[in-house]
Design a protein that fits this description.
By secondary structure, the protein is of the alpha/beta class. The chain has 9 helices and 8 strands. Strands 7-6-5-4-3-2-1-8 form an 8-stranded parallel beta sheet. Helix 1 (3-24) crosses helix 2 (44-52) and helix 4 packs across helix 5 (109-122). The longest helix has 22 residues, at 3-24. The relative contact order is 0.15. Residues 29-224 form the Alanine racemase N-terminal domain. Residues 222-244 are annotated as: Disordered. The modification N6-(pyridoxal phosphate)lysine is found at residue 40.
Length: 244
Amino acid sequence: MTTDSIEAADRLNALRDSMGRAARLTGRTADDITLIAVSKTQEAAAIRPLIAAGQRIFGENRVQEAQAKWPMLREETPGLSLHLVGQLQSNKAADAVALFDVIHSLDRPSLLTALGKAMDAADKRVPCFIQVNIGAEEQKGGCPIAETPALIRAARDAGIPVSGLMCVPPADVEPAPYFALLAKIARDEGMDQLSMGMSGDFETAIMLGATHIRVGTALFGERPSPARPVPASGRGMIRNSREG
């Protein structure tokens, strides 16, 4: 193994140890939790050491970025699984269905319609998580809590496989109440899959029932923050920006 691969393996093993400690408190093990390595903004050269260390499930925020690097990486290493964990525009639904194995950000009827058409055209059913705007934040994606049961029913009626619920809690506050609320909504809807928890709060998420965690910084290190134009309203540029 290269030095980069050894360092990646050390980070991965340390993370899995932390996952295991949290999982044991709920009668589970680290193997019961799906670890999604969020590789947004990471170049292929930074991802390969983690693949060499044994990680096989990755997450991306943007369809176009994923298209630029993952076909090559998948050709190099068959058996990789790719999850879309960021906001999805309806006009990218067909591309997302073609590229991703799981979509974590189904959050509105218009996207449901676009995904249904794309899945029908591709003759491919991609499992989806319903993203819930658990903190009722205007600047973030996610279905309003009150509308979530109806969106779940509509997705099922459309033949879209609904795996569970996903959330991104508000920043800089204790996430536990939001994770607990998502778990309650899932129970009420007869679901047991929860995509919640990132680098700073995955242990709390696991203790509150997370089955999928989305971790970037703890595996890849701090990312540079790309400069983006801010709309005059000051809104619309955050959405799922906390992923990882």
